[in-house]
Amino acid sequence: MTALPRKSVLLLSGGMDSTTLLWWMRDRGISEIHTVSIDYGQRHAVELESSASLSRLAGVNSHRCLEVDLRQIGGNPLTEIGRPVPAAEQERQTLTVVPFRNMLFITVAAAWAETWGCKDLFISPVRDDFQIYRDCRREFYDMLEKTLCLGATRQADYRIHTPFVEKWKDEIVSIGLNLGVPYAKTHTCYEGKRPACGRCDACVERINAFRANRTVDPLAYEIDVDWTTSRIV
Amino acid sequence: MTALPRKSVLLLSGGMDSTTLLWWMRDRGISEIHTVSIDYGQRHAVELESSASLSRLAGVNSHRCLEVDLRQIGGNPLTEIGRPVPAAEQERQTLTVVPFRNMLFITVAAAWAETWGCKDLFISPVRDDFQIYRDCRREFYDMLEKTLCLGATRQADYRIHTPFVEKWKDEIVSIGLNLGVPYAKTHTCYEGKRPACGRCDACVERINAFRANRTVDPLAYEIDVDWTTSRIV
Lengths: 233, 233
Fold this sequence. Notes:
Oligomer: homodimer
Helix content of chain A: 25-40%
Largest sheet of chain A: 5 strands, parallel
Distance between the termini of chain A: 34 Å
Largest interface: A-B, 41 and 41 residues
Order of helices and strands of chain A: EHEHEHEHHEHH
Radius of gyration of chain A: 17 Å
Strand content of chain A: 5-15%
Number of strands of chain A: 5
Number of helices of chain A: 7
Shape of chain A: globular
């Protein structure tokens, strides 16, 4: 476990994992937290509203929305309106990959952070992610960290903190419930729906994480969810 | 010297170095060249026009303009209208650094390239650059290359080719003159002026590179340039 910084930037999507990380950082006593959300042309822009309101609720030092338009990259259903999001049962998560998304997000956040002298960046990949998404593995962040150090305007020790990278989503929920994370205000659904669709990959993962904790997710879903089952769908 | 790929993406700013690289790639027989220019909110947007017209002139397979708005990052005179560009004599190049600019450009180009299966990226840092710009050193590109390999959607061997990284600007001009690069159509001036200002750091470097080759730069300048002197200003 590395020492925690005084001054930090958190990539906050307003989802379950990054919001839990925000509450975790606050709990750990990081005195200065600046949240960044990325407007990448996502069709679920509701994510940006969640990020802003959760930042206010957490009382962060600043919240900033940075723009990296991934629609121009093309090829994935998270940004293309016409392309259907794969349901959890059928096509798996690789179809929802935006190439180098986390790398772009970290780099643009690092660029902004450099202008005011912050070198500590937090992001919330979890263990469930890195089974599929290669840019959610710590190995990748180690290399990205070294690249930032070499590419910075002046010699500097950039750190990319990923305290949840070895944790499963159900552990995240467990941590968050203990910290009082307002999960009803977070956002997950790939479809960008409120109430959440309850069927897409992201919703199903979330529902199962709450089920594993024998807890009802306070988020509104457009389907009836059976919270008593422990069956992982 | 590494083997050259068949299919490639070149980051083309339309300046002296990247344009020479385009002609060099063509000369080396790379059969498929796709140029990318980045609209980063530069005040010298004339660079984007140069890039497009030079791409046409070179007969590339495709030309694409990708957008990464660096104005939102702030803190540098290349994107901020109100901030004066430092004259060559006074403040040196560090003031014209946009944090992680090349890293963002390479990453967004790599993301686009991934969607159609290209893993070979060309960029044109030169030796004069890496005295000041840390993200122009090969050491940095080696690490960035490894990061791309680790972060790609699927296991892949990304290569960032920097064939000019050990060459000085006067060597670039020498190579380009031999290859018939249409230097009158390239663009350099930090001020974004046409005719070029002849006073900013970029102009002065360019003028000196032509002087070292005992050649007159065919580009139009708004000041009278003495091409006979070998004095480095």
